Amino acid sequence: MRPPCRSPHAPRRRAAARTAEEQLTMPEYDYVVIGGGTAGSVIASRLTEHPDTRVAVIEGGPSDVDRPEVLTLRRWMGLLGGDLDYDYPTTEQPRGNSHIRHSRARVLGGCSSHNTLIAFKPLPSDWDEWEAAGAAGWGAVQMEAYYARLLNNVVPVHEKDRNAIARDFVSAAEAAVGVPRVEGFNSRPFTEGVGFFDLAYHPEDNKRSSASVAYLHPFLDRPNLHLMLETWAYRIELDGTRATGVRVRTADGREELVTARREVLLCAGAVDSPRLLLHSGIGPAGDLAALGIPVVHDLPGVGENLQDHPESVIVWETEGPIPDNSAMDSDAGLFVRRDPARPGPDLMFHFYQIPFTDNPERLGYRRPEHGVSMTPNVPKARSRGRLYLTSADPSVKPALDFRYFTDEDDHDARTLVDGIRIARQIARTEPLAGWLAREVCPGPEVTGDEELSEYARRVAHTVYHPAGTCRMGAADDDRAVVDPHLRIRGLDGIRIADASVFPTLPAVNPMIGVLMTGERCAELLRGER
Ligand SMILES: Cc1cc2nc3c(=O)[nH]c(=O)nc-3n(C[C@H](O)[C@H](O)[C@H](O)COP(=O)(O)OP(=O)(O)OC[C@H]3O[C@@H](n4cnc5c(N)ncnc54)[C@H](O)[C@@H]3O)c2cc1C
């Protein structure tokens, strides 16, 4: 059995290079963390603060230490679709864009090592929505403490990185939409606003403050922390209903059983956590049996409730080149609440200082030499999809059917149409208007609801926020995969902590919510010992 793709880069540093002999001295661990990504890094770091707690991290990718192409935030786009990306396709999307590729990082730190590190504490209404959906103890009041614990360097985009056109976007949006200018989105809850983001980065050298940089790099010499890099977990091992470890294939091709005395912590992300469960026979019994996978534990919710933040794009050619300074080329954004009955924003925009034409080019649009983009997205998308296997062969990528824009009342598509209209209003407003030569796509002639919807959906992209495929719910919710203590329903000795447990996506970018989930998981484990 093989990971979906493998890297020629050998792991480099001490922790990345523990030998087989060392491993023999640590055959059994207290905890085995599957996935050294965003949540997994937090949990491994917190657990190994206790010197007697031995933790193995099974990570499919290599180390990020000494890799400037990973550690330099502004180089994020260069990682998409490359060797460090699992690169998952979507299934045919009759109402959306079937060409979307879902980047998922194959490197220590997971997606926090190749994302844009926009750092939003989920809004109180996001957490309260979880609690109302059965996630007792995950309400806004209880969750606040975990934000304060985060080790990441979360700071506003630095003055030197604030590009003149992005500043003018902020001023124009403030004037055109009538929303407040926000300095420090995390300082208080908001329903609307425009401003520069907070980012998890070090402005002095543009270095990431990813989960691995903040939570693992300072502690790589802990003797009780064992990173097994370029090692792929392919089956969870159970003794009756108790998880005892995980079967892995190591970088040099050996197959091993890594055992957990206390617990297995599944942190492989919203795609790979359900995928590994399904290949381990944990999931909807009928689906597993149809593929010839022996059913170990019938759990119908695995892979259901797939969610995302879909976005569209509107691109302008600029009168000339744009100044080059930036943190990562999308440093400012806008939140709008169209429905005053909603507790939070219902439309969000990223402003890109580049012409983001990858999807429109498929429809025949040309990329201008100089340009900018606004990408309206749906913060609370109502469409729900599903992840499922198409083969018992674990090397075959799972099917990701997001069912984009299939919600009954067409809320998701209508949100993007509103977004394009608001984007145009902003573009007509000074001081942004003076920069813009022409609208490239969809083009000023596209104005009707139907044609805007058609355009918005056909060029739709993902904000790369898949979540919800191992949904957390009340202990008696038989469609939930984990209970509010993150324990897999009906099993012992195994929890899930990553974006897959989100009952719903927050209205904001989810990474901070994932890190806070990691902190909470670590605390639950400490509390139960
Ligand atoms: C391009 C991009 C940009 C984004 N930008 C932002 C942003 O600016 N702000 C924001 O809030 N969110 C952003 N996100 C989303 C955010 O990064 C993710 O939601 C979050 O990092 C997911 O964390 P996770 O712990 O669930 O999974 P991951 O961080 O993906 O961790 C999973 C880890 O498990 C490993 N793994 C998977 N399967 C196996 C296996 N079988 N065996 C061994 N190892 C395995 C992977 O290699 C990976 O390291 C972005 C995502 C992408 C892809």
From TrEMBL:
Keywords, sorted A to Z: FAD, Flavoprotein
Coiled-coil intervals, chain numbering: none
Binding-site residues for FAD, renumbered to this chain: 107
Start and end residues of each Glucose-methanol-choline oxidoreductase N-terminal domain: 269-283
InterPro entries: FAD/NAD-bd_sf (IPR036188), GMC_OxRdtase (IPR012132), GMC_OxRdtase_N (IPR000172), GMC_OxRtase_C (IPR007867)
Cofactor(s) of this protein: FAD
Domain of life: Bacteria
Region entry Disordered, spans: 1-20
UniProt xrefs under Pfam families: GMC_oxred_C, GMC_oxred_N
GO molecular function: flavin adenine dinucleotide binding; oxidoreductase activity, acting on CH-OH group of donors
PROSITE patterns to which the protein is assigned, alphabetical: GMC_OXRED_2
Family assignment from sequence similarity: Belongs to the GMC oxidoreductase family.
Name this polypeptide is given: Oxidoreductase
Organism: Streptomyces sulfonofaciens
Source species taxonomy: Bacteria, Bacillati, Actinomycetota, Actinomycetes, Kitasatosporales
